[in-house]
Every structure is written in structure tokens, then in C-alpha cells.
Amino acid sequence: MKDILTAPFMVEMIRTATNMYAHGWDERNGGNISLLLDEADVREYLDTDNVLRTVPTGFEAPELEGKYFLVTGTGKYFKNVQYAPDVNLGIVRLTDGGKKAELLWGYTDGGRFTSEFPAHMMSHVARLRVDPENRVVMHCHPANLLAMTYVHDLDERAFTRTLWQMCTECIVVFPDGVNVLPWMLCGTNEIGIATAQKMATARLVVWAQHGIYGAGKDLDETFGLIETAEKAAEIYLKIAHLPLVNTITDEQMHLLEARFGVKAREGYLQ
Length: 270
Fold this sequence. Notes:
Elements: H1 8-22, E1 32-37, H2 39-43, E2 53-56, E3 68-72, H3 85-88, E4 89-95, E5 100-106, H4 117-130, E6 136-140, H5 143-151, H6 156-166, H7 170-173, E7 178-181, H8 189-199, E8 204-207, E9 211-216, H9 219-239, H10 250-260
Parallel strand pairs: 7-8
Antiparallel strand pairs: 1-3, 1-6, 2-5, 3-4, 4-5, 6-9, 8-9
């Protein structure tokens, strides 16, 4: 077997978690990441018949039966992932219709997957139905997006339009817009279900007064998706108290659609 710490998916996960902490998105043990893996890739590094232990998930996801995920652990600090990946990360395989997770590697201190595991897995199901290439779900607490939920209307169209108007690239990077959930208790199946419903129509879901969920085809794309929205929120907070003299108009955003071959979410532009 090859050394799993040299696996491209492991190297990129460690790099991404480290970068997210450096950006200030994942204070203490805040935030979590899950990456859907190909079984063939896992078999190069692990004996998939060697199940270390089985953990109940507390939910059902029959669509993910037999799927493998690399997932950050509950209570783990992103700043420590690069120093002890085997403690802070784990690879699990879902079985019994998603009701159980078989641990194949990691969580060597006796830990388990993130408390937001239900929200992650339900979001994976929702995004895979839309785009089979979406393999990443990422949750973090970017300060500007979080702050924006205190001072901006949480209407999804209004929230999206504000972000689109802050940076020329925004409508190109997330033409599907941003969905928003009002404050809900985290770590529950209820917020997982609500997030998955929102994921059906957008790759970004803001949790008001908490953070954001992003989904994408790989870790780089998903990180960049959140990074772009966070930059737009930062600009909004810098100018929200000032008279607005200029903006990116709907006509200009239609030009961006044509130039970059994207389609803005239906009904969000004039």
C-alpha cells in the first residue's frame, strides 16, 4: 500500500484546511470539510476490508450507500490538521443506507466525524443530483459574510444582487446566486435538511449569524467560491454606510453573462 499522507486528495485536504485557518475562516474548532472519494483511489492507500470501527450517523442517505468520504473531525482545530492529519481527519464509508459510517482511517485519538456530518451528507446528496461532479462540501465562518447577515435583508434575491454588485467577477463565479437560511440550531438533522433543500438551487448557502456552506467539484473550486463571496461581503461592509454613487448595473451584468458564457439565476436580473 502507498503512504496515504502522500495521496493527492490528502495533500490537498491538508493544504485547504491550513489555508482556511490562515484566512481566519475557521477559528478554534469552527468549520468542517467533506470530500467524496473514488473507491479506486482509496484502495491504492487503504485495505478497505479493514474497518477500524463503526459509528452510527443518526440519519439516512441511501443515495450515498458505499460511498467514501474524507472528513474533518468533530472538535478539531484546522490549525492542527497539517501537524496531525491522522488525528484531525478520517476516511469513512457509509453503509446501511447511510445510517452507519465505517471508519477506515484516522481519528486516531478516538474521535469521530464533524457534528455537521448530517448537513454535509444531505448536501452531498442534493448537489450530486444537480451535478455529479460536485464532490466537496465546505463549511466555515468568514467574518464579512457573517457580519453581513446582521445588517442586510436576508431575502435571497436581494442578498445575491448585493454581492453581485460588489465585484465584477461575482456573477461569473456564482451565477446561481446565494441562498440564505435564517438562524437555526446547528449540528441537527433539521438544519441539514434545510441546507440540502437550499443546495438544490445554489452552491452557496449562508447560515445567518453563523457562516456559509459551499459546494463544488474540488477543494480549490469550493474554496474560491467562498473566497469570492467573502470578498464581495467585505466590500459591501466598507461602503454600506456611504452614499452609493456608482454600481454594476443589470445591463452590465448581462454583458458579463454573454462574455463569460454564464446564466444568472432566473429572475435575479432586470
